Structures are given as C-alpha cells and as structure tokens.
Amino acid sequence: MILHLISAFPPLSQTFVLREIQQLRSQGWNTVIGPLRPLHRTPRARGFEDLESCTIPVRWISFDLLAGLLFLLLSRPRESWRCLRIISVSPGQPVGFLKMLYTLMSAMRVAWRVRNANVELVRAHFLHTEALAARFIGLLLGIPYSVTVYTVFVELPETVIRDIVSHAAFLVADTHQTERFLMSFGIEPDRIHVAHNSVSMEEFPLRMPEKATDSPIVLGVGRLDPKKGFDVLISACSILRERGVQFRCVIVGEGAEREKLLTMRARLKLENYVDMVGELSFADVKPWYYKAAVFAMPSVVTSEGQTDGLPTVVIEAMASGLPIVGTRTGGIPEAVRDRSNGFLVPANDPESLADSIQILLEQEDLRERFGTESRRIAKMEFDLTRKGEALSDLLRQHLSSAFDPSFVSVERQIV
User: Fold this and answer.
1) CATH number of residue 31's parent domain
2) Burial letters for 138-171: b for 16+ Cβ neighbours within 10 Å, e otherwise?
C-alpha cells in the first residue's frame, strides 16, 4: 500500500495531484490518502468522489490526533524525540515553528491510523509540510518515503530541507529546474527522477476551426498571486489597446491580488477589454480554452524569490491546441518552445508580452501552426497516462507487494 500525503482533500488548486493518484489507482496501486488538515477555506475540487473511500478523515482536533500523540510518544519515544529535534532548528521563528509542530502532530495522527496497514511507501506531494510529514512518518514507523518537488521556492528552513531530501528513498522532480535545485543539495542524480506535470489528453478533444470574431480572446488562468504576473498582462493589454489591436482578455482565478488588479484595470480604463471572471472549476475553465485564441502565462520572480514551476494550466492550454505566450521563468520553457508552439518573453516586460500576443492575434495561420504543435508536445511529453506508466515503473523498483493487478482494496480497514 502507498500512503499519499496531501495538504487537504480535495483542494481545487491541487487537482493535478489528485488526477495522478487516480491514474496510479487505475493501474492497480493500492492507495490511502492522508490529508494533513481540513479543507477549511480552500475551494473544493469536484470529480474526485472516487477517492473519498480511501481518504483518512481529518479534523483540526480529534480523537485520532490525541491517540496518535499518546501512542507514538509512549511507544516510539526515541523516534518522537528525533522528530522534535528536526523542527527545533527554528525556535526564533515562532510562526514557522508552530506550523512544523502542527505538521508533526498531523503526521502522528496519520501514522497512528496506518500503523497496521502494511504501508510500504509514503509519497509526499510538494516539498513543504507534506514532505516534512513524510519524514516524520518515515521515522516513526520505519517506512521509506519519496517527495515530488514542483518548485524551487520552499518556505521550510534550509536545514530541514536538507534533512528531508537526504533521507528520501527517491525524489521526483516536476521539471529539470527542480532537478537542478535538488542536485544543489548534493543529491545523487540517480536518486532524482524527472516526471513532468501532466494532463489526461482524453479530456481535451481536437480544436475545431476558429470562427471569425471581432475580439479574439487572450486567456490567462491561475491564482491571483504576485508570482503569476497578471499585473504585467494587464499592462500589456493597455499597450495593445493603444495600438488599436482588437482583443478581449479573460483572466480566470481568485486570490490576494484581486483588488489590486481591479484597481489597475480601472486606472488604465480597461473595463471593456479585461474580464476577471473569478475562480472556476476545471469543467467551467475548459470551455474557455476552446473559446480563446491565445493563452498567456506572464509569470515573474517575486522579490521574495517565489516563482512558478510548470503550471498545470499551461499544459491544459497546450492540450486544447492553443499557442502559448509565456515567460522565461520556472519550468515554463520546458513546455513552451520559442517560435515552435508559442513565444517566450522576458518576465516583467509588458512591451514584449504585448508584441508576441499581437503577432499571434494578427496571424491566424501562425496561431493554428503553433496550436497544433502545442497539442503534439502535450500528447508526447505531458500525457497523464504516460506519466502514470513511468511512475509505476519507478514504484516497482522500490516496492514489492503494494502493486495488485486485481486491485483487491484493503483501504476500508484504515479509513
């Protein structure tokens, strides 16, 4: 059995993780999902009801939490002390320390629930609290763990990161950028396996020929966070309007930057050019991919060093046959090949972003050629079925009995 650790279940922002788990289950992997906290204010994803039966229920405070603490502190005092030592590196940062302490308590709760379930591997999605919890469970129960890394920006203290990655059985890098990041910690290359974020191509039908429209749509999708660079996209829209380019920009997403972006839109008098439609489910976002003419991913590197990895929405836009205009940040250049399926532009450069968008808006043949290549790349390199097969091969190298072709589930024993 494989224990997948995620922050909460089922979060709208991590549907790509849930789809990967579904894919592995369909290939015969016996699975249990361990959320570290309740969903709380995080928007709920739809379409993952099949995973509820193998997900451990979670509350902020519960009998499981108290039982796990008592059981492991009494039965595994040495291992519990080692866990406490890991988080003791930042007592001068009370918020970070308290977060890691709660992660330890959550890990003990999950460990107590799966202690008799024959878990052979703990998989942590994200090098964050999930990875820290995997390290704790690995210590408490003597189970190997792996971590999938999606970004090079990590909030945990460096000493904690080094401890996590150095003790992992193996590591999965979402991009070659994250692969290099892991190697910077001295991790041997043969312990790192690159497996790109992927989508199910079956969910993306072939694009039909475009219908003529006076205002072709430039689409942007993502959380309204500073690293997404939507302020740069709005500035580019102002430039396009001044040039007399016909377009309509649609930004799908919600987040802390919303009021700032709305104020910016009003200041630039772009209310008739830029629509901010809020957060949508995958089922509601998908039609926008097929209405759009161009997909824009204007990601930036923030002053704190935050940056995108390889956003799922870029792969979804490619699978739908859209040309992409993206920035040379994070893992975006690993999917967007300049002048092949789109354009790559410098980050924080609205002029260059506007130039590339304008070229695509004014050249239908180029849009079609780039869009066809986008879909081909998505199918060959970012297809979820292929990723599932690659991960299955990797898991078989490390596990013996967790794989069951007949998929006789024992999940009900622990959830």
Assistant:
1) 3.40.50.2000
2) bbbbebbbbbbbbbbbbebbeebbebbbeebbbb
Indicate whether 94 pLDDT > 90.
no
Q: What is the DSSP string of 57-94?
A: ---SS-HHHHHHHHHHHHH-HHHHHHHHHHHTT-TT-H
183 and 108 in a common domain: yes
**What confidence category does residue 412 fall into, taking pLDDT thresholds of 50, 70 and 90?**
very low
State whether 164 and 61 are in the same domain. Answer: yes
Instruction: With CA atoms as reference, report the closest residue to 145 among 175, 111, 101, 179.
Output: 111
Tell me the average pLDDT across 200-226. Answer: 89
The residues, any chain, with a CB within 8 Å of residue 338's CB and separated by 6 or more, are 344
CB atoms within 10 A of CB 303: 7
Same domain? For 82 and 220 the reply is no
> Which amino acid is it at 396?
R
pLDDT score of 409 more than 90: no
Long-range contacts of 93-102 (CB under 8 A, 24+ apart): 93/157, 96/155, 96/156, 96/157, 99/129, 100/129, 100/132, 100/156, 100/160, 102/37
Q: Are residues 334 and 404 in the same domain?
A: no
216 plus 144 within the same structural domain? no
Which residue in the block uniquely carries the two structure tokens 């992660």?
103
Give the mean model confidence (pLDDT) for residues 390-405: 76
Query: Among residues of the chain, what percentage have pLDDT more than 70?
Result: 95
Secondary structure letter of residue 45 according to DSSP = P
Q: If DSSP codes are grouped into helix, strand and coil, which group holds residue 403?
A: strand
pLDDT in tens, 286-300: 999 999 999 999 999
**How does the average pLDDT of the chain come out, rounded?**
92
Q: Are 236 and 350 in contact (CB under 8 A)?
A: yes
3-class SS of residue 363 = coil
Structural domain boundaries enclosing 348? 201-380
> What digits encode the pLDDT tens for the residues 24-68?
999 999 999 999 999 987 888 989 999 999 999 999 989 999 999
- Cβ contacts of 257 within 8 Å, gap of 6 or more: 224, 225, 226, 228, 230, 231
- What's the confidence (pLDDT) of residue 92? 63
Helix (H, G, I), strand (E, B) or coil at 374: helix
**Do 393 and 328 share a structural domain?**
no
pLDDT above 60 for 411: no
Cβ neighbours for 295, distance < 8 A, ≥ 6 positions apart:
218, 219, 220, 221, 289, 313, 314, 317, 322, 323, 324, 325, 342
